[in-house]
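Example 3.2
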Amino acid sequence: MNTLKSVIYVLLLFTSIAFAQNSQSAISNLKNKTNATITLNAQSKIPEFIKFPNASALKISGTTLEDKALQFLSNNKSVFKLNTIENAFKINKPEHDNIGNSRLVLNQIQNGVPVYDGKLLFHFNSQGDLTAINGNYIPQIKINTQPSIDAASAKAIAIQEIINQNINNSGETLLVKTNTLFVFQKGLAQGYQGANYLVYQVEVTNDLDVREFIFVNAHSGEIVEQFTGIAHAIDRVVYENNTSTIAWQEGDALPGTLTIWQRNEVEASGHVYNFFNNAFGFASYDGADAQMQTINNNPNINCPNASWNGVTANYCDGTAADDVIAHEWGHAYTQFTSGLIYQWQSGAINESYSDIWGETVDLLNNYEDIDDDNSLRTSGCGSSDRWRIAEDATAFSGAIRDMWDPTCNGNPGKVTDAEYLCGTADNGGVHINSGVPNHAYALLVDGGSYNGQVILGIGFTKAAHIFWRAQSQYLTATSDFVNLADALEASANDLLGVNLEGLSTTNTPAGPSGEIITPADVQQVINAILAVELRVNPDACAYTPVLVETAPLCDNANNNPIFFEDWENGIGNWTLSQDQTAATWTARDWEIETSLPNGRTGSGIYAINAPIGAPQYGGDCASDFQNGIMRLQSPVITMPDFTDGNFELAFNHYISIEPSWDGGNIKMSINGGAWDIIPSIAFTANPYNGTLNGPGQNDNPMAGENVFTGTDEGSNKGSWGTSIIDLGSLGVLANDTIQFRFEMGTDGCNGREGWYLDEFRVYNCAYALSVSEFENLESYVTVYPNPSNGIFTLQNKKPTALVNAKVYDINGRLIKTINLSNMASEKIIDLSEFSSGLYFMSVASKTSTTVIKLLKQ
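Structure, written as tokens:
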């Protein structure tokens, strides 16, 4: 068993290393051949932006843009870690802009299922040469793309989730607008590489104050992710409702009997329509002349506020100033262009674009500006009204954001500012962190010196065209600040030499402006990006999993562990116990679990950490308290008579536990002595990540102890990782006996999921079995056909009795076990239910094991 896993591990390791090396080499070759500038995704190391030099766009053979894009991918498969381009993409029709350039979008699919925000955007100049490629490609997806639950079930789960969240404040009927099957990579928006899931993206709305995108696991029915689709002008809950009373419609007299706020809504929405239509040829927010519907002051609104809910723009008396109105319509234009989600940096860009368009319209439309001072800002937070958001909205008692100096309103002007918000508040900082791109736009328009950079202002016309092109041509749903920087720089280069259309908020277009972007203007874009640090990672709050990636274990940890347990055959010689400290404690122990989180195959063992109100174990924080400890104790493990090297312990685990209140740790006994907690200092990888709140405030019997606790940042879930402990540092020597005890402690109520364990091993990297202990079956155990469509035949050419065969996926996860004890000379191995790709099958006799590669087409 252990030998088999070692062989598989080595094969996988070499495959992975070779794949990575091939990709790195291919990227270097592409850079050298084309002088391209390439930005890599920090996690996958796959390019997310490739920009070819302005003077030497890449010429590719082909009669159509589709031919050229596919030819590029065919020639550069290793760059994107592509195995094949056959059936890998669904290609949109080419898009042509008003300056002669073109864009072709290739949408990634997996077995015909679209991959969420998996798309490559190919950009061509007027000669049909390739100028840039950007987007997301999700590599090496290995999941079952046949859903286990249907769309109707996912719909019911999503609606129930919204009901449980109690956010339908208006009480209007919830309905599902869209319900789409996707392959979804967890963490794509947050900036980390999580697991892939098959999900239904269910859009739940009431067309008023609810619009949420719920991602339902298409196999388990669990909620994988949730993004909001309601954009708010200020960071408060918005309550909106429909009204049957029409105050004004196209063709009515203006202002008629409208209040000043109603008139503002009519006038400013017209300014927005004219601005985008005149400058960019984009008619209404969907580009197809949709009716712009506004609702003012209905009984259910929680004023003062404003919102775009996916259907209507909504305001209160006192909030409907022209920049606020344009801001909310800006969200509508974002929905139908980049589709930026409303969380984390993607949401901050979404919010920033609304501020950008809101303030641009405000400063150009000469509307309700009698008492405004829109002169250039000099110094201080109130030197003029220019760049101040909602300064005329009387209900807000002053401007709510400042684009020229975001710190005036407590927002960051650059990524490393102390005001930069870390964590999940404000949907991951969408309003607060919007100050960073806001500042970039203001600096680019007016110029200034900031953070060691001097920016010469290029004015509204050039800046607006650059930002619009980035929004409409480059940004995608999960774009972050780095992607925005790449998009702005690429857009500026795209527009070199173009006589830009002038900006106008009236129904009369301004016509060609005579303003032409120059290389010097491109440099100002670069300077603004540097000034606000769009390409700087906010290290203080990078969203990372609890358990980080570790270096591979040594061969002997897999080949020849001193002790190994993966709970594939039950509890074994491990013992269970519990410590009840509440009278209402519901008895529970660690349990064998065959449905492991994140699609991990095989079995493991886990201690539940149920959320409040969950059946049996969640508690209610009132009369049902669940404070206690669950213990999992190993059998006695005897160290070999071996004095070289160092003894170590490694185990794989998954953590999703109520942070700071509940948690788990490991205790150890040496030679039958006292049980002591293994200290953090003994870990060489992934030590405890927290300390439980102390006894004075926490009724958890483990209060104050160092533990594993919490969840991955930006999520209520966890992910799998490996912790490693140096047993030698704890005094473990040759011939010692040791035992381990995993303890999971909970307070009175509430939780997340629990603590899962798998592949527990004690080993010494210097302690190895001799080669003579292995017998090779390769000479008489074969498989045919190989490759196949999923049906393989295992053939035994000798009368040797075989025991079983076990099939592992490319990640080393057990996916199938076949009993061979009654096998004659041949046995059918059926993998038709699994995805195409490479698998490893171990075949075991009573004395030896061999591993065979299987390729399912």
